[in-house]
UniProtKB/TrEMBL annotation:
<comment type="similarity">
    <text>Belongs to the bacterial ring-hydroxylating dioxygenase ferredoxin component family.</text>
</comment>
<keyword id="KW-0411">Iron-sulfur</keyword>
<dbReference type="GO" id="GO:0051537">
    <property type="term" value="F:2 iron, 2 sulfur cluster binding"/>
</dbReference>
<feature type="domain" description="Rieske">
    <location>
        <begin position="4"/>
        <end position="99"/>
    </location>
</feature>
<keyword id="KW-0408">Iron</keyword>
<keyword id="KW-0479">Metal-binding</keyword>
<protein>
    <submittedName>
        <fullName>3-phenylpropionate/trans-cinnamate dioxygenase ferredoxin subunit</fullName>
    </submittedName>
</protein>
<dbReference type="InterPro" id="IPR036922">
    <property type="entry name" value="Rieske_2Fe-2S_sf"/>
</dbReference>
<dbReference type="GO" id="GO:0051213">
    <property type="term" value="F:dioxygenase activity"/>
</dbReference>
<dbReference type="GO" id="GO:0016705">
    <property type="term" value="F:oxidoreductase activity, acting on paired donors, with incorporation or reduction of molecular oxygen"/>
</dbReference>
<keyword id="KW-0223">Dioxygenase</keyword>
<dbReference type="GO" id="GO:0046872">
    <property type="term" value="F:metal ion binding"/>
</dbReference>
<dbReference type="GO" id="GO:0004497">
    <property type="term" value="F:monooxygenase activity"/>
</dbReference>
<dbReference type="InterPro" id="IPR017941">
    <property type="entry name" value="Rieske_2Fe-2S"/>
</dbReference>
<keyword id="KW-0560">Oxidoreductase</keyword>
<keyword id="KW-0001">2Fe-2S</keyword>
<dbReference type="Pfam" id="PF00355">
    <property type="entry name" value="Rieske"/>
</dbReference>
Length: 103
């Protein structure tokens, strides 16, 4: 894996998320009360962008069918989603957010 700068801390307030593009993959970056987390941005049920959905606490809801995932673990928490998301390690370095990502 390789650490890649994804955003500045100031880019995301607590409760917000954004899409970060790395090569051919989109990653969702979330800012929760417990810090920053990153998962694949593609819902495993409907191939929809999760960063276009809704983040409540640690749970992101897919905007297409309402399936939900825990952004800390990638585990599905609500039907119709049953396949976990890929997750990525995140570090805050000063005022920058870095994701451990490999193309």
């Amino acid at each position: 894996m390789a650490w890649v700068k994804a955003a500045k801390v100031s880019d995301l307030a607590v409760g917000e998320m954004m899409q970060v593009a790395f090569d051919d993959e989109d990653v969702a970056l979330y800012h929760t009360e417990d810090g920053f987390f990153a998962t694949s941005d593609v819902c495993t049920h409907a191939a929809q962008s999760l960063s276009a959905g809704k983040l409540e606490g640690h749970i992101v809801a897919c905007p297409r069918h309402g399936g939900k995932f825990d952004v800390r673990t990638g585990q599905p928490t609500a039907f119709p989603c049953v396949i976990p998301l890929a997750t990525y390690a995140v570090e805050v370095r000063g005022d920058e957010v870095w994701i451990d990502y490999e193309a």
